[in-house]
Amino acid sequence: MTTRRRMIATDLDGTLLQPDGTVSPRSAAALELARRNGLLVTLVTGRPPRWLAPVANQTGWHGYAAAANGAVLIDLDKRVVEETFPIAGEAANEAVARIREFMPGATFGVENVRAGTPLRSTPTDNPYDQAPLTNTEFGHEPGFRARLGIPIEAPVAPLADLIARGDVVKLLARGPDGGLLDPDDTMVQLTEVLAGVVHLLREAVRRDLHPRRAPVEIELPRAAACRLDEIYRYTRDRWGDAQAQAYIRGLFDTFERIARGEVGSRPIPAEFGVHGFWRRYERHIVYWKPLADGDAGIVTMLHESMHQGDRFKDDASPDAA
Coil, helix or strand for 156? Predict the structure, then answer.
């Protein structure tokens, strides 16, 4: 007896999407062929609905999407949120209280998505643009930092008020400003802290499921190596050797994940004069470019407070290589 396949489900970042956030023509053609053969194509992602339009513009508005780590089901044909599985207000407040006790200084953002909410298109073709928000989709408390930026229309309000709006499908927590915590150790401890309250997710922790990944080659020129030394010394002097080593390990983990195509990156601005991409790691911007042999070349990594254009040109010049 044979079982007829009826659906294809694919992850987005690090799977369907290329490092620059686009869908390759070959992948788009494969999805279209699957649809023509009667298969239901479903996008599965940790992204909230406001981040989905750039992808659906490339794959076609067909099938379904399971967004926000499965908390939101979207009918892409109708461009509407069909069903949600929100966090109860009591559980969200309990999770916040436990995280604040474990990690003083943590700040939070809240994704609020209601069934029946329509999905809107993005204003540009940039694969990392967000669709315009309503005043009930995302908000954050003062001081919250986001990896890919916060829409200017997002409300800033006390966290209790944002949770009280209901329809909380995702609670985003960020460590204290300037704090250096080992991400993996923090995840392990928070999993115990939040047991029985909410489900905790972090993409990087999944690497434990793939302990035998093939080795990757990363090119690290002299300028980038000097930046690493500066970062290590500064972190060691301010927070100690253990924190410095953890931060450097995190940077190298980011390099490896870039090289494997496991994470998305944004294009380097044209005015920088180098074809390549960038991705944030904590308080630093990692600049890289694809090499002819398929490996990743790290150009430099700059603290977010630095003037990116001038420092980048210094590190990317032939004299600095």
Answer: strand
Residues of the chain with CATH 3.30.2310.20: 218-320
Phi-psi domain of 67 (left: phi exceeds 0; alpha: psi -120 through 50; beta: other): beta
Asked if residues 67 and 49 have their Cβ atoms less than 8 Å apart, the reply is yes
Smallest CA-to-CA distance from 155 within 163, 92, 147, 304 is with 163
Q: What percent of the chain has pLDDT over 90?
A: 26
The whole-number average pLDDT for the span 57-67 is 90
SS3 call for 301: strand
In CATH, the number for domain 218-320 is 3.30.2310.20
Give the Cα separation of 183 and 71 in Å (integer). 24
Contact 140, 106 (CB under 8 A): no
In the chain, which segments carry CATH 3.40.50.1000? Answer: 7-84
* Amino acid 289: pLDDT: 87
The continuous run of DSSP H or E covering 72 comes out as strand 72-75
Phi–psi pair at 104, nearest 5 degrees: -55, 140
Q: Strand 64-67's sheet: what is its strand order?
A: 7-11, 40-44, 64-67, 72-75, 80-84
Confidence class for position 213, pLDDT limits 50, 70, 90 = very low
Report residue 93: phi and psi, to 5°: -65, -35
Looking at this protein, which amino acid is placed at residue 145? Answer: R
In 3D, which of 224, 104, 264, 218 has the Cα closest to residue 96?
A: 104
The SS3 call for residue 111 is: strand
Q: Assign domain 7-84 to its CATH architecture.
A: 3-Layer(aba) Sandwich (3.40)
